């Protein structure tokens, strides 16, 4: 546990700060709308549901501001490069960008549910107070719009007892944009479930771009000004503490309190999301520019098990080990971009990827190259982008573990190590590298091209970690995995179990690839 906290303390601090900010914003907004005199009359109609709706709206704005930042891959790569000389714990939060993206999405779902439920109560209470006909304060406030001279100072958005809640919802800016944004959110979240994402990636890819609809609706959601407050001038003239009990005598006599005047709450969502949208637009513009640069396919090789290797060249392309790129083939789909780990080494004159058939897009791409077309189909490339594997050379001992196609991130690393040894690179810290290859029927490894081969099959992890700990009693060991969650869970426990309590002795640091 101590080892885990030592390497993840900044990630934990960031997560706790984010949760704390959500709690603070919710409580702050809730108390403001529950206690502020400006909303006294609004609360007479809506009750506590007003505070729940507005507090959840504050948190929705905050998390909608945060949701795009973890997927700005160029920004993250820049930060990773900036922190390349920092302590490894300072770079850890960057490795969990997609996890944080998911957590923010879950938080948005929670506060959306609170916001929608609260406003369902609000609209129902608006409707009831309009139909009350009982002379209550809520009824009087709901009928302020019927006074012609005060038609711009209404409090209840339902202006007629004959107007249904459904009609008010779909004919108001706030109601209609709320319905559309919620529908888009539900579609995005459900299509992002792991089963759909793994087996129907195209569905996930297209549906996830509904975030554009969500952001637009969020930005204009508050234009209707449904949530209203008493104006400052009206507060000075007729404070609710002095006038709320004499509401039947408003404007009746010269000495009576004046009717309160109300104004819509100004839209605020755009203020929260403007900066991250600007960053994201710059991100997408940069990615679009790079995707338009010419890519030359120098070699296409079909390996066993329907694995396609593409070797390519691109002007100005520069990579590091463990990085990945996004690939698009316009002849298959103009809009779809898929991530692939680079399997070449930085020392090579080309960059390469290995593609396994795992869906309609990859199957179509492999089928296209199997036909050996001339000329070859155009390929667009965006990237490269950084991953946790870039830190592999920061460790004296590295253990690389890949399952299935998960061995591809380490092909680049193993090749680069071989080149560095050949060139006697004295800056290389790594002295030991362990890797498992699933192909042992050829003279060289199918991915790395190296002659060195290791054992086939699933290792006994306790034996492996015990052996490494005994062989390197005072080393910092980096364990890198690209594989399933169940394996990650086992390896993380082994790293904790075999790390010494003494920080001067062997320490295992677990790192998992995520895309």
TrEMBL record:
UniProt membrane topology term: Multi-pass membrane protein
Stored InterPro entries: Cyt_b245_heavy_chain, FAD-bd_8, FAD-bd_FR_type, Fe3_Rdtase_TM_dom, Fe_red_NAD-bd_6, FNR_nucleotide-bd, RBOH/FRE, Riboflavin_synthase-like_b-brl
Domain FAD-binding FR-type: 284-391
Compartments (UniProt record): Membrane
Cross-referenced Gene3D superfamilies: Nucleotide-binding domain of ferredoxin-NADP reductase (FNR) module, Translation factors
Domain of life: Eukaryota
Listed name of the protein: NADPH oxidase 1 isoform X2
Organism: Microtus ochrogaster
Protein's UniProt keywords contain Acyltransferase: no
Primary site of residence: membrane
PROSITE patterns in the cross-refs: FAD_FR
Transmembrane annotation, as ranges: 12-33, 45-69, 103-123, 173-193, 205-227
UniProt keyword annotations, A-Z: Membrane, Oxidoreductase, Transmembrane, Transmembrane helix
Reaction it catalyzes: NADPH + 2 O2 = 2 superoxide + NADP(+) + H(+)
């Amino acid at each position: 546990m101590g080892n885990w906290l030592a390497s993840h303390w900044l990630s934990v601090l960031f997560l706790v700060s984010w949760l704390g900010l959500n709690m603070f914003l919710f409580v702050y907004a809730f108390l403001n709308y529950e206690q502020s005199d400006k909303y006294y009359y609004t609360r007479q109609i809506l009750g506590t549901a007003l505070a729940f709706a507005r507090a959840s709206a504050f948190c929705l704005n905050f998390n909608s501001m945060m949701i795009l930042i973890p997927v700005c891959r160029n920004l993250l790569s820049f930060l990773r490069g900036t922190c390349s000389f920092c302590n490894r714990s300072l770079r850890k939060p960057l490795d969990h960008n997609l996890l944080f993206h998911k957590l923010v999405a879950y938080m948005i779902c929670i506060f959306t549910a609170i916001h929608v439920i609260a406003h369902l109560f609000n609209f129902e209470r608006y409707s009831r107070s309009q139909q009350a006909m009982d002379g209550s304060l809520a009824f009087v406030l709901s009928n302020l719009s019927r006074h012609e001279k005060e038609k711009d100072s209404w409090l209840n958005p339902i202006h007629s007892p004959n107007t249904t809640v459904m009609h008010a919802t779909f004919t108001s800016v706030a109601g209609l944009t709320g319905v559309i944004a919620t529908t888009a959110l539900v579609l995005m979240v459900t299509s992002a479930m792991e089963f759909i994402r793994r087996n129907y990636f195209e569905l996930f890819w297209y549906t996830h771009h509904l975030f554009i609809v969500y952001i637009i609706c969020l930005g204009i959601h508050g234009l209707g000004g449904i949530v209203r407050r008493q104006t400052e001038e009206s507060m000075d003239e007729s404070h609710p503490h002095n006038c709320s009990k004499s509401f039947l005598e408003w404007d009746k006599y010269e000495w009576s309190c004046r009717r309160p005047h109300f104004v819509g709450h100004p839209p605020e969502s755009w203020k929260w999301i403007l900066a991250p949208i600007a960053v994201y637009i710059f991100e997408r513009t940069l990615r679009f520019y790079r995707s338009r640069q010419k890519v030359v396919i120098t070699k296409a090789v079909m390996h066993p098990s329907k694995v396609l290797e593409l070797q390519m060249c691109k002007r100005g392309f520069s990579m590091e080990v463990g990085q990945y790129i996004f690939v698009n083939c316009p002849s298959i789909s103009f809009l779809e971009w898929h991530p692939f780990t680079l399997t070449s080494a930085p020392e090579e004159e080309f960059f390469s990827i290995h593609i396994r058939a795992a869906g309609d897009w990859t199957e179509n791409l492999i089928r296209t190259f199997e036909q050996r077309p001339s000329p070859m189909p155009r390929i667009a490339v965006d990237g490269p982008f950084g991953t946790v594997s870039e830190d592999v050379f920061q460790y004296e001992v590295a253990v690389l573990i890949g399952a299935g196609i998960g061995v591809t991130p380490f092909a680049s690393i193993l090749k680069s190590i071989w080149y560095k040894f050949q060139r006697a690179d004295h800056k290389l810290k790594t002295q030991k590298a362990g890797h498992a290859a699933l192909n042992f029927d050829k003279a060289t490894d199918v991915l790395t091209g190296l002659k060195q081969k290791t054992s086939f099959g699933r290792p006994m992890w306790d034996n492996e970690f015990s052996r490494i700990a005994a062989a390197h009693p005072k080393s910092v060991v980096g364990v890198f995995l690209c594989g399933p969650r169940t394996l990650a869970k086992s390896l993380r426990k082994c790293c904790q179990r075999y790390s010494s309590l003494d920080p001067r002795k062997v320490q295992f640091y677990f790192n998992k690839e995520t895309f």
